[in-house]
Amino acid sequence: DTEVTQTPKHLVMGMTNKKSLKCEQHMGHRAMYWYKQKAKKPPELMFVYSYEKLSINESVPSRFSPECPNSSLLNLHLHALQPEDSALYLCASSQDSPANHPYTLFFGQGTRLTVV
Amino acid sequence: AQSVTQPDIHITVSEGASLELRCNYSYGATPYLFWYVQSPGQGLQLLLKYFSGDTLVQGIKGFEAEFKRSQSSFNLRKPSVHWSDAAEYFCAVVPPAGGSYIPTFGRGTSLIVHP
Q1: Residue B11, Cβ density class (10 Å: 0-12 exposed, 13-18 middle, ≥19 buried)
Q2: Structure confidence by residue, pLDDT tens digits, A51-106
Q3: In chain B, what residues touch A42 (CB-CB under 8 Å)?
Q4: Backbone dihedral region for residue B84 (phi beyond 0: left; psi -120 to 50: alpha; all else: beta)
């Protein structure tokens, strides 16, 4: 199994809603990532978890709250988002911590988020 | 500033024609180099990577890339493009020393394939 699975594929939410994005991998990878990608732009790093601990937060607003319940699962909790937060949210994993080595990133298909 | 540059926003080729996508970096030492592809509505997939050794790297889907130290380049090539190669291509670099090995992505090149 070399897949990173993200759910849901599409999400429309109001600015007062609370929702969560889910990401799962069963490759035994020990690092997981959240990226945000706007149209026609490269992915922008948001968070990195290594060994289930948050290791990098790229100054992301607190309305985005990551969670890593175990080594296979990564969630992104969303609350009070703004329309400009509409984007493709990509989850990725790598074999081990990016503090040690430039590991290949394995990406999920993403969640297309629209904030109305 | 240290960075990665993809000079071409769009490239249009005919099916069956050859392809070269450009990538340049500006680091003092050789960084770790990657090419990823993103098909419409999909996540990114690694095509190939270069860390050291043979400067011509073979990847998946018939792609190859050549590292040229003198030109600070890592250009992606394919001898004969298929319609299914239409996608966004990202060059990514990881600085050669210290701290964190998180890749920095170029802005991407959109490949359009004409029948």
Answers
A1: middle
A2: 999 999 999 999 999 999 999 999 999 999 999 999 999 999 999 999 888 899 99
A3: 90, 105-108
A4: alpha
Helix H, strand E, coil C: the string for B88-103 is EEEEEEECCCCCCCCC
Structure tokens at B20: 């070269």
Of A27, A37, A100, which to mutate for an interface test with B (greatest number of B Cβ within 10 Å)? Answer: A37
Q: Would you say B57 and B65 are in contact if contact means Cβ atoms under 8 Å apart?
A: yes
3-state secondary structure B17-77: CCEEECCEECCCCCCEEEEEEECCCCCEEEEEEECCCCCEEECHHHCEEEEEHHHCEEEEE
Q: Locate the DSSP E strands across chain A.
A: 4-7, 10-13, 18-25, 31-37, 44-50, 53-57, 64-70, 73-79, 87-94, 106-107, 111-115
What is the residue whose two structure tokens read 């990577």? B49
Establish if A27 touches chain B: CB-CB under 8 angstroms: no
Q: Does A113 touch chain B (CB under 8 A)?
A: no
- Distance, CA of A5 to CA of A8 (rounded, Å): 9
pLDDT at B2 over 70: no
Best CA proximity match to A110, nearest among B88, B32, B97: B88
Distances (CA, A) of B65 to A5, B60, B78, B112: 29, 11, 9, 19
